Amino acid sequence: MSSIYSVIKVVLFAVFVQHVGKVIYLLGFHKAVYNHKPGSCHLIEGVEYGSEDIQTLPNGFAFITSGMKLFAAEETNKEVKGKIFLFNFANPSKKVVLLELKNFDQETFDPHGISVYKDDETEKITVFVVNHHPISERIEKFEYDYANLSLTHVKTYVDAKFTMMNDVLATSEDTFYVTIMNRFRSKLLRHIEALLTLPLGSVVYYDGKDTSTVASNLYLPNGINWSPDHKFVYVVSVTVFGNGFNVFHRKADMSLAFKERVPVYTGVDNIEVLPNGDIWTGCHPRPVEISQMTHNRSLSASSQVLRIGMKNGEMVSVTEVYSNDRNGIIHGSSAATFYRGKMLIGTVHHKLLYCEIDQKF
Q1: Which terminus of the chain is more exposed, N or C, with fewer CB under 10 A?
Q2: Is 294 helix (H, G, I), strand (E, B) or coil?
Q3: H-helix or E-strand containing 21?
């Protein structure tokens, strides 16, 4: 009997060591980060508390979420306010414009992912934002006012499936996908999910009336976007082999069928898809650093931007466009967007970086 117990102890110890090794690998302790940029870069004035997610319209106007408080300790959030900025690629030397939020309680605004839907016939712009409201997880819907540079709040979406959201993908003026990062909203249970690498995340679709889970068994699903022809939906998530994203076929009823896993071996965050199908993404090359920074804003984290060439839902190339270690000009890159030879890099809790790109992409 004692020999059986000995075997069990050895097996359990081996499982524990393997799990610890997996977590250490996922956190990127082993990775080196190099410093390079594609051209001249400068910080954009007006952004002090993050530029977590960015979406750029065909006219070069970029909508930016700022002031996410979710992961940080309360004492570091006293001066942080949830905001949405507008950046014009035609005037990169100017600071961002703070959009007024009408008919909305900004004190309870904790913005994360953003998605902008433009009706090509009416020119109407609808903006969806993930809001980690103190009471419940919510999707906030706004209409953009061109003349007054403001966003008018139209509707709040709340659902039992919205346990802990990360990003949203608008598919019309009243329908969207949303990534459910955690099964539980409790901070303690979120940490347990992460540390045990439990694949309890999912993707939920709202069809204008009801919600349905269209993808499940995902570990910490994050950014979401789709191909220009809308045939494929890309969902960032983590696996034992590191970060990357999943490619799904989008069916006519908006449900998702898994196609393949694209490993990128870095901490992919939000993803922006260009009209030619290329993915631009802000990444965390050493996720342990951004994990530390989210709990203590005085710390720093390395940054990375990748351009991922896609064709028919398959990766055909990967180019590292930008990289800096934790001593660089920005900390914790979470988003990247490209427009006519220019780039914006957003961060979870830090600033906003603009770069001119010398080489052709």
Answers
A1: N
A2: helix
A3: helix 2-27
**Rg value, the chain, Cα:** 20
Distance CA 309, CA 297 (A): 33
- Model confidence pLDDT, tens digit, residues 161-209: 999 999 999 999 999 999 999 888 877 888 778 777 788 999 999 999 9
Q: For residue range 60-101, what is the model confidence (pLDDT) as tens digits?
A: 999 999 999 887 666 666 788 999 999 999 988 889 999 999
* pLDDT tens string 302-330: 999 999 999 999 999 999 999 999 999 99
User: Is the pLDDT reported for residue 338 higher than 90?
Assistant: yes
Residue 217 has pLDDT above 70, yes or no: yes
Residues in the chain: 361
Residues labelled catalytic = 112
For residue 100, CA distances in Å to 103, 150, 191, 245 come to 10, 5, 35, 34
Residues 6+ apart with CB under 8 A from 248: 215, 232, 233, 234, 235, 256, 257, 258, 259
Question: Per-residue pLDDT for 11 more than 90?
Answer: no
Instruction: Order across the sheet with 232-239: list the strands.
Output: 224-226, 232-239, 242-250, 256-263
Euclidean distance between CA atoms 198 and 186, whole angstroms: 15
Q: What span, in angstroms and rounded, lies between the C-alpha atoms of 326 and 322?
A: 13
Backbone angles phi, psi at 24, to 5 degrees: -60, -40
**Apex CA 171: angle with CA 229 and CA 346, to 5°?**
90
Q: Which residue's structure tokens are 């949203």?
A: 168
Single-letter amino acid, residue 351: K
Question: Which contiguous run of DSSP H or E holds residue 24?
Answer: helix 2-27
